[in-house]
Amino acid sequence: MSMELKSNLKLKNFKYLLLVICYLLLFSCKVNYRFKGITIPPDAKSISIQMFKIADERANLTPAAEPQQLTLKLRDAVSTQTNLALLKQGGDLLFEECRIVSYSTVSQSIAAPTNGQDNAALSRLTLTIKINFVNKLDETKNFTDKEFSRYFDYPSNQNLSQIEPAALEQINRQLVEDIFNAAFNNW
Question: In the chain, how many domains are there?
Fold first, then answer.
C-alpha cells in the first residue's frame, strides 16, 4: 500500500472513531435538566404555584397587592429559568400553602441624640413567608412549612410609604431566589 492510501485510511478511521465518541457522549445517558445549577427531575414536565395568602395577624399590614406580586415573581422565575409547563393545579412539582406570615417594620439602629432623645437612624422592613414544596417524582425533595425571611433597611427619616415599592421589589426578588434554590438546588 502506498503511503498516501495508508494516510487516508487513518484519517477515515479517526473521523469514524471521533463520530462514535461524539454519539456516545451525546446520547448514551439520561441526565437531569440543569439550568444555572438547577436540578429538575428528567420526568418533570409541569409545575403548579398557588397564590400567596396573608395567613397571620402579624402580616395584617401587608399591602393588598403583595401576595399577587410575590406569586407572579415566583411564576416568572419558574417560567424563565426552566422548561416546565405552568399549570393552575396538578403539576409534577407543586408550590402550595404559600403564605405571608409576618410583615413588620422596626427601628434598627440609634443615631446620636438630639434634644436629649435617641433617634432611630435605620428602620428595617421584614417580610416572612412559609411555603410547601411537593415533588411528586422524588418525595425526598419535599419540604413543609419552610420559612423564608428577607428584609430591607432604610433611613428612619423616610416614610415607609416612600420606600415600600422599591423595598418589596428587592425583598420579593431575594425571596424568590431563596425559594427557587431550596426547591431546585437543594440549598
Answer: 1
The answer to whether position 2 is within a domain reads no
DSSP letters spanning the chain: --HHHHHHHHHHHHHHHHHHHHHHHHHSS---EEETTEEE-TT--EEEEPPPEE-SGGGTTS-TTHHHHHHHHHHHHHHHH---EEESS--SEEEEEEEEEEEEEEEEEEEEEETTEEEEEEEEEEEEEEEEEEETT-GGG-EEEEEEEEEEEEETTS-HHHHHHHHHHHHHHHHHHHHHHHHHS--
Indicate whether 11 belongs to any domain.
no
Domain that holds residue 94: 44-184
Residue 21 lies inside a defined structural domain of this protein = no
Closest to 144 measured CA to CA, from 129, 133, 160, 158: 133
Residue 34's pLDDT is 39
Please give the model's pTM, rounded to 2 decimal places: 0.75
First-residue to last-residue Cα distance in the chain: 63
State yes or no: pLDDT of 167 exceeds 60. yes
* Closest to 177 (Cα-Cα) out of 129, 134, 135: 129
